[in-house]
Amino acid sequence: FVAGLARRYHVQIVRWQCPVQSVVKLNSDGCSRGNPGKSGGGGVIRDCAGRFLLGFSCFFGELTSLQAELKALLHGIRLALDRGYRELHIESDSLVLVQIVRGTVRCPWQLQSGLQELMEARRYIREISHCFREANRPADRLANVGVDFGINSTYGSFSDLPRLVRGDITLDRLGVPSLRRSRVSLAC
Questions:
Q1: Could you say which of 19, 65, 93, 167 has the lowest number of CB atoms within 10 Å?
Q2: Does residue 24 sit in helix, strand or coil?
Q3: In whole angstroms, what is the distance from residue 44 CA to residue 62 CA?
């Protein structure tokens, strides 16, 4: 606490949103412990009613957080296309990645080949959006599973998912909100 500054918090209600009819939503997340450091990715694909269709967790080795975010997104898109899903809404809690994919921020050279692969799948992507971390919990948990266990897993049924991920998905489907708290410092 700095003298002369009062701490205030802004609280915001955050919910995971279902995609529109006939579109599936891929929520993906990448993580890096060290940046660069030990990294992984995870994701969940759900239908327009919020029902679980597919999930994954991956271990990537030594990457930066942005590299892990892109790699997780690409892995999720490949899985979705392999399963025949051709109408995708992709969502990430990495605002920078969303801006890169939208073309509003320049892509670092280290991500160019991954971005090129993503652009080749662009015709299947109906929407790309940013969400807060609180609305991306299942993907975040699965990314951490990838890092913690150092293996790649695909979850084809809801019952195969880790218990906490099943709980997060159930809460999302029920529309239960999360609270996002951010600190705002104001001069006294």
A1: 167
A2: strand
A3: 23
